[in-house]
């Protein structure tokens, strides 16, 4: 009881939202960095799972589940990483060390004030978040590749929202676009403008095909006009087909 009172007394009021080294939350932060490789392994699988759930989540409505998922995320990530719910999680790019725990909220490396012992200049009792981040990144498979990628400034309007849902939505959207780019309609353009696409791809992009063209596609492919060099195939006339 006495120890608890002491730890509150030594932390200046303006820093109380940040964890003192004596707290279990701070220890969990360090634990996450020490075990960044295992967390990375788990995170990848977890990410695949929520992306796989995208059709279901879209059916339910992302907006509807945003609040309960954000509450669950805050609970879980708060316990594991002392997450501050910035809404744009970059843990996998920062060695599992949450950059929002840096008093200056720096997202692209440390300030110039890291102490000689690796502690923070603002809070001398705390390891610099970025010293921890490099430590964690070095333990991960892809950590050192990711940590050097420049992060955009924090978008404060996303604070409190679920990063899990955002990631699921964005990855699923990208995959849908890739699938759409190879759908039959768009392939028609790719085939017709084959040469243009080789010389100057931007001149014949895989743009969306108009619906009317898609409707005619089955007929068009029957005559093989879209296959370069292949002779057009014409169906033999029949009694029931006066146009033939
Ligand atoms: S020393 Fe590290 S944790 Fe402290 S303010 Fe600078 S970058 Fe942030």
What key attributes describe this structure?
2 domains, disordered C terminus, 52% helix, binds iron/sulfur cluster, single chain, 11 helices, 244 residues, mainly alpha, elongated, disordered N terminus
Count of discrete alpha- or pi-helical segments spanning 4 or more residues: 11
**What ranges have pLDDT less than 50 throughout 5 or more consecutive residues?**
1-17, 219-244
Main beta sheet = none
Principal-axes geometry comes out as elongated
Which series of helices and strands comes N to C?
A: HHHHHHHHHHH
How would you state the average pLDDT, rounded? 77
Helix content: 40-55%
Q: How many individual domains?
A: 2
Beta strand count: 0
Helix and strand composition category: mainly alpha
- What integer value in Å does the Rg equal? 27 Å
- What portion of residues belong to β-strands? under 5%
In this entry the ligands are:
iron/sulfur cluster
Task: Give the CA-CA distance, first to last residue.
Answer: 95 Å
Overview of this protein structure:
This protein is an all-alpha fold. It has 2 domains: 173 residues, no CATH class; 41 residues, no CATH class. The protein is 52% helix and 0% strand. α3 crosses α8. The longest helix has 20 residues. The N and C termini lie far apart (95 Å). The N terminus and C terminus are likely disordered. The structure holds iron/sulfur cluster.
Topology:
Layout: H1 2-10, H2 24-34, H3 36-52, H4 54-60, H5 62-81, H6 129-139, H7 143-147, H8 163-181, H9 184-192, H10 194-199, H11 211-222
Helix pairs in contact: 2-5, 2-6, 3-8, 5-8
Bound molecules: iron/sulfur cluster.
């Amino acid at each position: 009881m006495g120890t608890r009172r002491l730890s509150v007394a030594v932390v200046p009021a303006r820093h109380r939202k940040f964890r003192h080294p004596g707290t279990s939350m701070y220890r969990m932060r360090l634990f996450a960095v020490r075990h960044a490789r295992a967390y990375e392994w788990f995170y990848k699988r977890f990410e695949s799972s929520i992306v796989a759930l995208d059709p279901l989540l879209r059916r339910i409505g992302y907006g509807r589940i945003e609040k309960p998922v954000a509450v669950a995320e805050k609970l879980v990530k708060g316990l594991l990483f002392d997450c501050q719910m910035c809404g744009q999680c970059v843990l996998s790019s920062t060695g599992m060390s949450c950059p929002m725990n840096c008093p200056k909220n720096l997202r692209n490396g440390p300030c110039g004030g890291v102490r000689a012992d690796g502690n923070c200049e603002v809070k001398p009792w705390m390891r610099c978040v970025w010293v921890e981040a490099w430590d964690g990144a070095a333990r991960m498979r892809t950590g050192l590749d990711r940590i050097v990628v420049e992060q955009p400034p924090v978008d404060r309007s996303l604070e409190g929202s679920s990063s899990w849902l955002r990631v699921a939505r964005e990855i699923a959207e990208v995959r849908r676009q890739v699938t759409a780019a190879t759908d039959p309609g768009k392939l028609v353009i790719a085939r017709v403008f084959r040469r243009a696409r080789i010389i100057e791809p931007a001149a014949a992009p895989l743009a969306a095909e108009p619906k009317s063209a898609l409707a005619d596609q089955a007929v068009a492919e029957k005559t093989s006009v879209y296959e370069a060099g292949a002779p057009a195939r014409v169906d033999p006339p029949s009694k029931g087909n006066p146009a033939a």
